[in-house]
Design goal:
The chain has 226 residues and is of the alpha+beta class. Helix content is 55%, strand content 16%. The model is unreliable at 1-8 (pLDDT under 50). The chain has a four-stranded antiparallel β-sheet with strand order 4-5-3-6, with helices on one face. The chain has a two-stranded antiparallel ribbon with strand order 1-2.
Length: 226
């Protein structure tokens, strides 16, 4: 008979739902940290992965109860499936490999969700808190933790003078643009540029830049392994 932590056997379905809800909440917490750093895998990705992994874990226990057999078989396939999902997030660009941290984060989210799905509540919550604290600690402005790769920024702007070029170079602390092109749109010239900078660029930085420099049309940070 399948043991429960706080509900009688006839209400075990309710505990299963609670397990999935807990996994979803923990996935949300992990996704918030990633989304604030403008990563491709944000809140929605982490929530869906967490809910799915928890559901598969609960179902594996259900199959074991109804039909017998090893309940770990389905759960083991979750690990393989998440591996394929993570591999799809990893990109190779020139000499840099991007997305490793995001892929590892999805893998960890699935593991935490599986713990929640198995009823290991304290383990799941503790692992979530530890994961968030590790991410915050490793992003402290300590030289040992600093990314050795450049952050890639895509910027679109309009200007009739060369002053904006000087302003942008000073803003991102660069000497030249990695890519630069101008496109005529009706009576205006629109500039598209790619910047490689060592500066920390987050959502607050982008919002402030768009507010302070009206000639900037758009500003986008591409995915980096941070």
């Amino acid at each position: 008979m399948l043991a429960t932590w706080f509900l009688p056997e006839d209400l075990y379905w309710l505990e299963c739902i609670i397990r999935i809800l807990l996994a979803t909440v923990l996935g949300f917490a992990l996704g918030v940290e990633r989304q604030l750093r403008l990563k491709v895998a944000g809140i929605r990705t982490h929530v869906v992965v967490a809910a799915g992994a928890a559901l598969f874990t609960v179902v594996s226990f259900g199959f074991s109860k109804l039909f017998g057999g090893d309940s770990a078989r389905i759960a083991a396939q979750v690990v393989t499936g998440i591996g394929f999902l993570g591999a799809g997030m990893i990109m190779h660009k020139e000499t840099a490999v991007l997305g490793l941290t995001s892929a590892a984060g999805i893998w960890l989210t699935a593991a935490i969700a599986m713990a929640a799905g198995a009823g290991m509540y304290y383990v799941a919550i503790g692992a979530t808190v530890l994961s968030v604290l590790i991410q915050l600690f490793l992003h402290l402005p300590i030289r040992l933790f600093q990314d050795r790769h450049y952050n890639e920024i895509k910027i679109t702007f309009k200007s009739d003078t060369d002053d904006c070029l000087t302003i942008i170079k000073k803003l991102f602390d660069i000497k030249s643009f990695t890519e630069f092109k101008a496109v005529r749109v009706e009576e205006e010239i629109v500039y598209h540029a790619v910047i490689h900078t060592r500066m920390q660029v987050d959502a607050a930085f982008i919002f402030k830049a768009l507010q302070e420099y009206p000639f900037v049309v758009s500003l986008e940070k591409t995915e980096s392994d941070r």
